[in-house]
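User: I would dearly like some help making sense of a protein record. I have put the entry right below:
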Amino acid sequence: MEIRSESIIRHPRAAVYAAYRDNLPEIARDYMPDIKEIIVHKREDNAAGVSLHNEWVSSADLPRAMQTVIKPEMMKWNDFADWDDAGFFVAWRLKTGAFTDAVICAGRNTFEEIDANTTKVVLTGDLTIDPKALPVPRLLAGKMATTIEGFVVKMITPNLTKVNESLQTYLDKK
């Protein structure tokens, strides 16, 4: 299922790109209440840009009924990102804490210069749930995978916008 988010950030492209790449843990800590922290596990500078492995830890409150099914370790995901400094884009893939073998999620963020002080951040991606990897009866798996994909995409799209709003606030205060 397609994931798409577009945001306008009223700062120069180079500043937006660099802050997104280098300051996301600080931005999340200070401006994103649903994110407990972003842990940088690995950062490698290379000829093209930077390769990062970040772990996102959610602090979102779950309904009581879901707390018996979704454990705290499931509220984390690993973000593997390859930043291309010349092209002003990042290719990413996520590994979820829940149903790790069933969820395939990858995409790309581009940073487009609108004018000297305005950047459009476009996130495109794809989320697929492999029904064969879900721990449910085979008869229900296909329908369940489609339902979960739709639910997750609907849930995370506003959060993608929140990341960019937080980035705007962070840059405004610098």
Q: What stands out?
A: Residues 2-173 form a domain with the Alpha-D-Glucose-1,6-Bisphosphate; Chain A, domain 4 fold (CATH 3.30.530.20). The chain is about 35% helix and 40% strand. The mean pLDDT is 87. The longest strand covers residues 103-115.
